[in-house]
Amino acid sequence: MTEETPLDRAHAAMAAATDEDAARLRFYERLAEAELFMLLSREAEGARISPEVFEIDDASFVLVFDLDSRLTGFAGRAVPYAALSGRAIAAMLAAEGLGLALNIDVAPSAFLLPPPAVAWLAQMLADRPDVVEQPIARVLAPSGLPEVLLPALDAKLATAVGMGEMACLVGVEYESGARGHLLGFIGTAPGAESPLAQAVAEALRFSGLEAATLDVGFFEPSDAIAAVLAREGLRFDLPVAPRPETQRAPPGSDPDKPPILR
Questions:
Q1: Same domain, yes or no, for 206 and 148?
Q2: Looking at the 3D structure of the chain, how many domains does it have?
Q3: Running DSSP on this structure, what letter comes out for residue 191?
Q4: 243 located within any domain
Q5: What pLDDT does residue 1 have?
Q6: Do residue 110 and residue 169 come from a single domain?
Q7: What phi and psi values does residue 103 have, to the nearest 5 degrees?
Q8: So what's the pLDDT on residue 240?
Q9: Are 172 and 180 in contact (CB under 8 A)?
Q10: In which domain, by residue range, is 31 found?
């Protein structure tokens, strides 16, 4: 019996709630976060890959699967493939005007994303949050939060492996008099600030809260405000990175250096 995957569950939820944007957005978020297996026409040559392209309904699609066994089941034999994140694949295909065909003929989550949908997803993932600096006057307990925010943050931060120690969600009043909410990261790993800010922005977008405002801050454990954040806020512990293994990173694992389509 084929195992049920997170994409299967997200697709089923979307199909059961066709009028709900939230379910649709959660499916796209799971797709972006998933490791996908792309069918290639030939073996990869370093960073260069050649996906097999199919014409469906007058558009060009690349086939991807969320299990390597599903890829093999579709092809009926061992075939060359590239294992990439959904976000890397979306960026690649959008640049080439290609669509994405997921789990075709092998799973209940079979789904076609035509080129415009792939371009939309790539843009959602590419948008970067603005950077501003505001002195904090007071830290408050969070209140009046949208119901979908906490589970969205919890799910997104669960993917932030090795990026820091924890995050605390608090209410804040700035010296300007403005009030809002702040997600303060404490003990952030070097270079993780931008990915974490992007992750929070994606949690808002894919929860239908893009218009909501949630500020992000980064603090050292030795900062005086860190203790205040921990005392007043809702705490999210970030997952610890597993012990690294010495191996070559596969093509597409770095979203800033995606593989090159041939």
A1: yes
A2: 2
A3: T
A4: no
A5: 47
A6: no
A7: 50, 40
A8: 86
A9: yes
A10: 6-126
Whole-number pLDDT of residue 225: 92
Q: How many whole angstroms separate alpha carbon 69 and alpha carbon 2?
A: 9
What secondary structure letter does DSSP report for 165? S
Average pLDDT per block of 10 residues along the chain, 262 residues long: 83 87 88 93 84 89 95 91 92 94 93 94 81 83 86 88 93 90 93 89 80 81 93 92 60 58 60
Is the same domain home to 17 and 114?
A: yes
Do 85 and 189 lie in a common domain? no
40-49 exposure pattern, b = at least 16 Cβ within 10 A, e = fewer: beeebeeeeb
Q: Which amino acid is at 180?
A: G
The model's pLDDT over 70-119, given as tens digits with 9 standing for 90+, comes to 999 999 988 999 999 999 999 999 999 999 999 999 999 999 999 999 99
Strands (E), 124-231: 136-140, 166-174, 179-186, 215-219
Tokens of 20: 């709900």
Angle between helices 6-16 and 21-33 (to 10 degrees): 160
Q: Is 162 left (phi over 0), alpha (psi -120 to 50) or beta?
A: left
> What single DSSP character describes residue 112?
E
Distance CA 208, CA 192 (A): 25
CB-CB contact of 167 with 184 (8 Å): yes
